[in-house]
Design the sequence.
């Protein structure tokens, strides 16, 4: 299964600690990956590192682990291909420009018979994921020739996401460098780190960090991941069909079913296996 | 002054040798740079490395120098900022998608009062260069809802380039991953390496390569650069206002003034200084 990682902060922050653990994963059952990608917003600019080599051995992942790029919004994706060849054009995250902003998108799931018509944005590769991004941006663009206010944008994206999820499993993270939009079909967790800061210990490696040493009192950082990255902090689980938007390190918009359902890790994995995620 | 580097081949080739010398440059008079970028097409995919640190010290440039990414089309740009802050959103090359293909563009020059209206593509940063790319793709898209044949595309791009160059100095390299389009206002050189292969010695470093050791008899590689990268090969100079298109390592389309003018390095530099290139 693929895994997603996102970060949204109120001050530019490096993601090295989280990526250290995340990049060691490739699936939930083994430690091999079939390519990975990570994109960093820096001001209005964006830096996207992609590699079709396993992240544990990739020189690109090694660079990211050692080069403290500070960013307010980051999206990463590691791939455990269940079928097909790993090619660069199918490697997440995918990037496009809308309203003079870069948009970055990564998906974990599988959309069945999702073949919409495109107007402004055409997929370059052949994944359902890139089609989802193109469809989403196409629709936004048709609705809003100019960028709308934040609240309107959140509602509009929520509505499009609700359309897309009718086609199948749609765990996703999307960002325009300002807000970070998430949708959960099966598994997605988040944590908000802010004062008082404590220690955190990675699940995937024997590494502990004391956030008191690397933060200032006003820092607030939200980290979103398919499964918790640390084992001594309280990660919050997103419900099935929950849509949540982060800005400056906190949730600013949320659409959750009235009777939320939370899957166990095993249930989430079982669904991923049954739909044969081709992310 | 900024410098451009491009490569177009008939077989995926790594650019490590050329980039080794190129990344040591930052201007013609000193060896400091203010950021750099390099984009590699791999199949339909693209990998774009950007850094706003000097390429001689950048960990990203170090990665590119040591990681043999094989590509049929590469565009790189190093920046010697004459004014203003170096921000990531203003770092070349710039990338967009058109007709389901990625397009990559780098520019060396200065366009005066070039502020067109945009329809499909909006600049993210504030350079004349990114505006030129957006204008160019906007026009192509309006003329051709679907991708035209190669010859038609070459003529269409030539016509748009001839419009843009009316606004000032416009040395540029553009690629859709298939062909590599170039335009010269002042300085641009190229070399086609093919059988029989020989040795090449970098201008900027004491490094020599024997291409016989790293090629097969059918390989053909065109390298394009602001100034020659090696000092024992015959680089061809492009004329002022020459438009040339490379495909599979050779020129397939060319539009050259009837009385071509070739600038010396000193004349090219003097023009760059006088227009205050803000690339």
Sequence:
């Amino acid at each position: 299964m693929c895994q997603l990682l996102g970060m949204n902060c109120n001050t530019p922050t490096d993601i090295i600690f989280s990526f250290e653990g995340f990049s060691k994963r490739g699936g939930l059952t083994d430690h091999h990956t079939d390519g990975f990608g990570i994109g960093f917003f820096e001001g209005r600019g964006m830096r996207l590192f992609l590699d079709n080599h396993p992240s544990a051995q990739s020189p690109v992942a090694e660079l990211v682990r050692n080069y403290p790029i500070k960013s307010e919004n980051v999206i990463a994706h590691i791939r455990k291909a269940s079928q097909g060849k790993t090619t660069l054009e199918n490697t997440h995250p995918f990037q496009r420009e809308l309203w003079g902003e870069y948009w970055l998108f990564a998906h974990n799931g599988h959309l069945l018979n999702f073949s919409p018509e495109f107007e402004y944005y055409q997929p370059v590769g052949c994944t359902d994921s890139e089609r989802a991004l193109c469809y989403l941006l196409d629709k936004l663009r048709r609705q809003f020739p100019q960028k709308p206010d934040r609240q309107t944008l959140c509602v509009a994206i929520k509505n499009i996401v609700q359309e897309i999820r009718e086609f199948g499993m749609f765990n996703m993270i999307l960002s325009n460098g300002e807000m970070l939009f998430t949708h959960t079909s099966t598994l997605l967790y988040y944590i908000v780190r802010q004062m008082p800061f404590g220690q955190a210990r990675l699940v995937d490696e024997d590494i502990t960090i004391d956030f008191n040493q690397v933060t200032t009192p006003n820092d607030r950082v939200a980290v979103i991941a398919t499964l918790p990255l640390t084992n001594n902090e309280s990660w919050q689980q997103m419900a099935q069909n929950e849509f949540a938007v982060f800005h400056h390190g906190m949730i600013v918009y949320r659409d959750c079913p009235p009777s939320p359902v939370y899957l166990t890790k095993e249930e989430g994995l079982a669904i991923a296996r049954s739909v044969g995620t081709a992310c």
